[in-house]
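W.,

You were right to be curious about this one. When I first looked at the sequence I had no strong expectations either way, so I just let the prediction run and decided to look at it fresh. Below is the sequence, 293 residues in total, followed by the output.
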Amino acid sequence: MFRGSFVALVTPMTEDGQVDYDALSDVIEFHIENQTDGIVSVGTTGESATLNTQEHCQVIRYTIEKVAGRVPVMAGTGANSTSEAIELTRCAKEAGADACLLVTPYYNKPTQEGLYLHHKAIAEAVDIPQMLYNVPGRTACDMLNDTVVRLSEIPNIIGIKDATGDLSRLDDLKGRVSADFDLFSGDDGTAVEFILRGGHGGISVTANVAPKSVHDAYEAALQGDAERAQAIDAPLAALHSKLFLEANPIPVKWAMHRMGRMTKGIRLPLTVLSTQYQPEIEDALKQAGCINE
């Protein structure tokens, strides 16, 4: 169903931590102009953990309205409470989202059976395409391939964002799920190789600051042109690494500020990027051609 470069979109905020809808509108247009293939609204990078339910739904609604059907919008609606995830997913459907992205329940560390029943309950409660999201480095919860395969048999569970960076998981999974089950990378550093090995796209943090390059690299990889894909991706290598010097989205929000696209606004317990790391982000932005001076 989905292909290419989806941006894990930041949620711009004012200096006092309020959602900056004017900046959000500008950032959305920046992505449309630079051929981003889809937008993920209020995922981890969008500070889903610091927005209350009303704000969460409002940012999704606003994003969908501004995109106006020009690219797909996938709404981040995962939670570590199944009932809350259902509530957020219903909100996203009512707002007109094309799909929802549901992270594995964080902190409470469910069993594989618990993961299966959690996602099954959400899929049965809300009739909208749903993509699984496995990022054990943040959630302390690892959805194993056997569980993914079970969930792939539920009609409206249409894919997975795998942020483990373990390409062997893709190699195993692609032979066990149907051809129309979307396999997306959630790890910028290995995303091009992920696509070259049979993946369908990536949900990218780096795409926030270098949308055209990420789009072009993924498109070349989808066409099987490894040499071109890797050549486009090479100048982004520093970004793929440095944008995680501190917890995402701290570095990428500072990078967007450095590019003049938003203020430094971020919500506690997250803080503005430490001064010691700012030159490294600047250098990575210069290597990628995102800033000149």
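Here's what jumped out at me. The radius of gyration is 18 Å. And, maybe more interesting for your project: The mean pLDDT is 97.

Coffee later to discuss?

I.
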